[in-house]
Amino acid sequence: MTAIVPTGADALPAARPRPPGRGRVAELLRAAAAPVICAAAVTGLLSAWVITGGAGSVTRSQIQVSLAAVPMRAYLPGAAATIHRATTYLTIRNLSGEPDELLSAQTPVARRVILIGPGGPHGTRPVVTGLPLPAHGRITLSPLGADVVLLDPARYETDMTVPLTLTFRHAGQVHVSAAVTAPGAP
């Protein structure tokens, strides 16, 4: 058997020796190009999604509630049923450098919750639409001053806690479990 060796136009060019390492670098660059382009495209799309607000926003609560209590309306269930409002004790700290405002409160145990402002010149305490909370400051809410008042509450005296949702202008909603305490006690 004889080997046929192509000549002329059918002949393959002679292999040239490559400098060491040049071919490998080019191969690595070609292999890495597609993943790098895909990663850049995904990063760009995610950045656009975040900038346009599609990703939402991250808000870290800057509000701390150190005391939360809802005293029983009375020691006896029959007497408690005749009292149509319940007061609270709350100590709220604003840990941020920006002032905030308590706008409202909600609880599943009351039909309605109102905010009461501090006492006026004649001892009256008005219903308010918000309670200011200074930057790096605190407010103490109690039946003797500014307060969160539960109107027409359901029977909660046998529970250990009352869930409260406090809504702030900047910090948003803060969920609190207020301890049920003896009448008049924080």
Distance between the termini: 108 Å
CATH H level, superfamily name of the largest domain: PCu(A)C copper chaperone
Percentage beta strand = 25-35%
Mass-distribution shape: elongated
Largest sheet: 7 strands, mixed
Which sequence of strands runs across the widest sheet?
7-4-10-11-1-3-8
Describe the oligomeric state of these chains in a short phrase. single chain
Number of individual domains: 2
Radius of gyration (CA) equals: 35 Å
Helix content: 10-25%
How many H/I helices? 2
CATH classification, class level of the largest domain? Mainly Beta
The total beta strand count reads 11
Which structural category fits the helices and strands? alpha+beta
What CATH architecture of the largest domain would you give?
A: Sandwich
Low-confidence stretches: none
Overall pLDDT: 83
CATH topology of the largest domain: Immunoglobulin-like
**SSE string, helix = H, strand = E?**
HEHEEEEEEEEEE
Task: Write a structural description.
The mean pLDDT is 83. The strands form two sheets. The chain has a seven-stranded mixed sheet with strand order 7-4-10-11-1-3-8, with no helix packed on it. Strands 2-9-5-6 form a four-stranded antiparallel sheet, with no helix packed on it. It has two domains: 19-58; 63-181, PCu(A)C copper chaperone (Immunoglobulin-like). It contains two helices and eleven strands, in the order αβαββββββββββ. By secondary structure, the chain is α+β, with helices and mostly antiparallel strands.
